[in-house]
Amino acid sequence: MVLMPNTGHKINPMVSKSQIDTTFDLSTYLAERKVLVEKALDKSIRIIYPEKIYEAMRYSLLAGGKRLRPILCLATCELTGGTIEMAMPTACALEMIHTMSLIHDDLPAMDNDDYRRGKLTNHKVYGEDIAILAGDGLLSYAFEFVAAQTKNVLPQQVLQVVARLGKAVGAAGLVGGQVVDLASEGISEVSEETLNFIHIHKTGALLEASVVCGGILATASPTNLERLSHFAKNIGLAFQIVDDILDITATTEELGKTARKDIEAQKATYPAIWGLEASRHQAQKLIENAKAELEVFGHKAMPLIALADYITSRSN
Amino acid sequence: MVLMPNTGHKINPMVSKSQIDTTFDLSTYLAERKVLVEKALDKSIRIIYPEKIYEAMRYSLLAGGKRLRPILCLATCELTGGTIEMAMPTACALEMIHTMSLIHDDLPAMDNDDYRRGKLTNHKVYGEDIAILAGDGLLSYAFEFVAAQTKNVLPQQVLQVVARLGKAVGAAGLVGGQVVDLASEGISEVSEETLNFIHIHKTGALLEASVVCGGILATASPTNLERLSHFAKNIGLAFQIVDDILDITATTEELGKTARKDIEAQKATYPAIWGLEASRHQAQKLIENAKAELEVFGHKAMPLIALADYITSRSN
Q1: A5-39: pLDDT as tens digits
Q2: With contacts defined as CB-CB under 8 Å, which chain B residues touch A144?
Q3: Is the link from the previous residue into B303 a cis peptide, with omega within 30 of 0?
Q4: Across the interface, do B162 and A169 touch by the CB < 8 Å criterion?
Q5: Which CATH number do you get for residue B303?
Q6: String of b and e for B164-183 (b: at least 16 CB within 10 Å)?
Q7: What are the φ and ψ backbone dihedral angles of A252, each rounded to 5 degrees?
Q8: Domain extent at residue A44
Q9: Is B48 part of a structural domain of the chain?
C-alpha cells in the first residue's frame, strides 16, 4: 500500500487502493478524543481528605499532554470490534501509569527536572515526599480503576489487561528501561543495542500495552493482537527517535520542557549514533512498517495510520 | 467465648466450649507458613538484565520479616474453603506491596531511615534512584503476579482482589495514611481521630486486604467477608497500638529497627495520648473483639485466633 505524505495532518491513506477521496482529519480526531479522555481523567479522581495527595495526583494527571496512550487504546479497541466505553478505564489507567513515571523520573534523585509540560514538576510544587506518594497513588489506582471500572468486558480479558499493564511498567518494562538509562548517563560509548533496550522498555513497553490492551478488551484474535503488537513496537521506537531529534532541533517553548537536555546530560541518543538525517530516515522506515501491519483492517485503521504518520511529523 | 491467656504462643481457644484439649502450636504454624511464603517469594523474581533492579527488589523482598500479611491471606483462604495454592500469588503480592511501602517510607525525602529489619535500607545499598524504581517495580509486579499467576480461581474473584489491593495501597489506603502521618510529624497536639486515620489507612488497609482477599479468592459469602473485614480492622489497629508500645519499651536489637524513633521524631502515638497501660488495655480489647468475629468458624479459625493473640504478645 502506497501512502500519501502527511501534510498538515490530513492524510489520504486509501487513495491508491480505492481512488475514493476519504481524507482523514487527524487534528479534529485527536482533539475530540483528548477531550473525552480528559473528561474521564477529571472524573476519575475526586478530592477528599487528605486533600494534598489527591491534588498532587490531579496536578500531574491533568497537566495536559498529548494523551497518546489513551487515544491509542481507544482506537485499537474500536478497530477490533469494541467500544470507547469498554476501553476508557484502561485508557485512563495508561495515563495514570505514564504520569506516575514522569513524576518519579523528574525527582531530584532521578532526572532532577524542574519543568514538565511547561509547568513546575510535581515535587517542586508539593515536595519530594508527596511527589513520591502521588506516583505510588497513581500507580496503584491505575490497577484498581481497570479492575473496578471496566464494564461489558469478560473478566478474563480485564485480567489479561491488568497483567499486561503490570509487566509494561515494572522491571521487565518501563522501570527496567529507566534503570539502564540512568546507568548509561555520562557514558560516551553507549551501544545501539543498549539504546534500543532503553527505549523498547522505557517508552516502547507502555505504548505497546496501550495498543494491545485495546485489542484484548475487544477480544481480538491472537493474529490481530500480534499485528497490533508489531504496529506498536514500530511506532514506539519511531516515537523515541523523533523525541531524540526534537531534543536537538526544537526549542524549549515548542517542547514544553527543557530542550537540548539530552546533550547537556550527555545522554545516548539515536542522532548521536546515526546522525540527524539517518535518524529521520530510520523513523520513517519504522512508521512504514507499522502502517503495513494494519493494511488488513482497511479504512477502519485510518485513525491509527494517521497517528503513525503524526509521530514523525510532530514538533513536540 | 472465653479464651485462655496466650502463654508461649500455645493457646487453647476452644477449651471453655468443648473441654477438649486441642492446643494450637502457633510458633510451628508461623514457621512453616513463613518457609512456604519465602520459597514462593524467592521463586517469584528471577535476576535477569538489568540485574541491579532485580537484585534491589529481591534485597528488600527477601530481607525477612514476619510475613504476617501473606500468612493471614493464606489462613483466611483456607478458613473459607479455599487452598494455599489459590491464595499464594496474592500472598506474595501483599508482601511485594508491603515491601514497596517500606522502601519508599525509608527514603531520605520520607522517614530517612538507614536500617530496616537489622539491615541497611534499600537506598543505602542501591542509591535513591534505584530504591524508588525498586518500589515501583515491586508495586507493579504485585498486580501482574496476581493477574497472571492465580490458578483455579474464577477470574471475577481475581479481579476483585486486584481492585482491593489497589485501593488498599493507594490514596484511599496506605498512601493516604502516610500523607497524614508525614503532615502530623512534629505537631504536638495530634487528635485521636487523626491518629486513627493514620493507622487505619497506613497499616490497617493492607492488613484488611490481606485477610479479606483470602476470603474473596475462596468465594466466601458476603457475610463471611464482612466478618473477616471486622476481624482485620480490629487486629490492624491493635497491631499498630502494640507497635507504638514496642517503640517505647523494646530495644533496637529486639525490633531490628531504631527504637524510640517515634519519640525522637515527635510522632503522635497511642501511648502518648492514652498512656502505656491504657494502650495495652485497648489493644487487648480490640483483639477480643476480633476473635469474637470468628467464633462462628469453630476450631478451623484457630490459626487466626492464635495470630490475633500473638499480635498483643509479640516483642518485635
Answers
A1: 333 444 444 334 444 445 799 999 999 999 999 99
A2: 162-163, 165-167, 170
A3: no
A4: no
A5: 1.10.600.10
A6: bbbbbbbbbbbbbbbbbbbb
A7: -55, -40
A8: 26-313
A9: yes
